[in-house]
Every structure is written in C-alpha cells, then in structure tokens.
C-alpha cells in the first residue's frame, strides 16, 4: 500500500513539475514571438522607404541625379558659372527650375 501511495505521489509530482515547465516554455515562446513580430514590424517600416517612390523632400545623388538631369534637360549637364549641382542636390532637394538654370543649354 505504501508503494502504491509513493507511486501516486511521484506521478502527481511529475505532472505538476511538467505542467510548470510547460507554462514556462510557453511564456518564453510567447515572449520570443512578441520580439519577432516587433522586429518584423520595425523592418517593414525601415524597408518601406526604399521601395516607395521618393518623398517630396527626396534628395538626388549619383545615378539618380544623372537621370533627373537627363529627364529635365534631355542631355547631360553643361554647368554654368561653375555651379556644383551634385553637392547641392545631394545635400538638399533640387527643383527642376534649379537644374534648368544650372545645367540646361
């Protein structure tokens, strides 16, 4: 009879510990899921800017500036009075009028 009681207590103890460990593992899993979802949302916010066309205050640097000059002037830039549009347009937004005045023949 004592052996049966000992086995019953051992099984009950094992189930209690098992249930506690499962809750701990579940809580840890839920925390990891929250972190992953938060990271995913942050990454979506960061990557969105690269996939969406430029905002009104978008700057033009390098190849983007060359394409902009070609679209405005129809030809490559022929700078007037030594203006450096690359530095200006990369630091701030350049309007089409500024590019016409600085580059277009």
Automatic annotation (TrEMBL):
Example GO biological process: dauer larval development
N-terminal signal peptide: 1-19
Keyword Secreted found: yes
Cellular component, GO annotation: extracellular region
Record keywords, A-Z: Disulfide bond, Secreted, Signal
PROSITE patterns in alphabetical order: INSULIN (PS00262)
Example GO molecular function: hormone activity
Protein name: Uncharacterized protein
Species annotation: Caenorhabditis briggsae
